[in-house]
Structure formats: C-alpha cells, structure tokens
Amino acid sequence: MDTSSNNLRAKRKAVALVLVVFVLGIALGALGAYVAGRRVWGAPTEGASHRGKRAHIVERMTRELTLSPDQQKQLGPILDDMQAKFRALHEQIAPQAEQIRQEGRARIRALLTPEQEPKFEDFVRRFDEQKKKKNEQ
Questions:
Q1: How many domains is the chain built from?
Q2: What is the pLDDT of residues 15-46, one digit of tens each?
Q3: What local confidence, expressed as pLDDT, does residue 19 receive?
Q4: CA pair distance 127, 81, nearest whole angstrom
Q5: Neighbouring residues of 127: CB distance < 8 A, sequence distance ≥ 6
C-alpha cells in the first residue's frame, strides 16, 4: 500500500512538473512574441491609440526603409487591415483559450493537497490580475 501511495505521489509530481513547464512555455512564448513585436515595430508612446501606434510604425518604417510618400499612404490601410484581422482572430479563439485555461486549472486543483489549494487560488488571482493589467495597456 505504501508503494502504491508513493507511486501516486510521484505521478502527481510528474504531472505537476509537466503542467508547470507547459505554463512557463506559454508565458515565455508570449513574452518572446511581445519582445519581438516591440523590436520589429518599436515601442509606441505610453497610452497611444491604434492610430498613434500606426503613425509610429509608419514613421519608423519610413525612416528605416526610406518609403516614398505614396508607399506611406498605402501602408496605413494595410496596418489597419492587419490590426482588424488580428482582433477578429483573438475574439474568435478567446473562448477556446479560456476553456483550455479553466480545464487546466481544474486538473491542477485535482492534484493539489488541501494546504496547497489556497496558495494556488492566490497564484491564479495574481496571474489573472497581471493579465488584466497587460490587456488594459
């Protein structure tokens, strides 16, 4: 009985480790995409609207690529179209992403001890707050 209990604990630890690595992979991937995006498009001024961001991108590309005035005029609508498509894609997959997140959290809760559960809930609360702040920027 003691051996099966140890095996169960070992399996739970392995599952927890895999989940932690998975979550960290997602976080690092998101961070990498964010950093790469800022390097490619540049950092917009704080609180800039989409139009402000677009203007910043057009200015930077004009400077670095020596765009003609005609190219600059054509670039704005392309950037607007990309933004609209990204927003639509995000809205389309957001419910699926939320479902995956909630299912994963339920699976994690199932392997936690009663002492770990409140710590996990605090972890989730802080994670969600950070995500909300990031999305508001």
A1: 1
A2: 777 777 777 777 777 776 766 665 555 554 44
A3: 75
A4: 31
A5: none
CA distances from 85 to 3, 88, 89, 91, 106 (A): 55, 5, 6, 10, 32
If DSSP codes are grouped into helix, strand and coil, which group holds residue 47?
coil
Interatomic CA distance for residues 46 and 81, integer angstroms: 23
pLDDT below 50 — which residues of the chain?
44-48
Residue 30, in any domain of the structure: no
Surface-to-core class of residue 46, CB atoms within 10 Å of its CB (0-12 exposed, 13-18 middle, 19+ buried) = exposed
Chain centroid to Cα 52, Å, comes to 22
Q: Is residue 13 part of a domain?
A: no
Helical axes 69-111 vs 50-65, angle rounded to 10°: 120
Question: Considering the domain boundaries, does residue 95 fall inside one?
Answer: yes
Q: Answer yes or no: are the C-beta atoms of 72 and 63 closer than 8 Å.
A: no
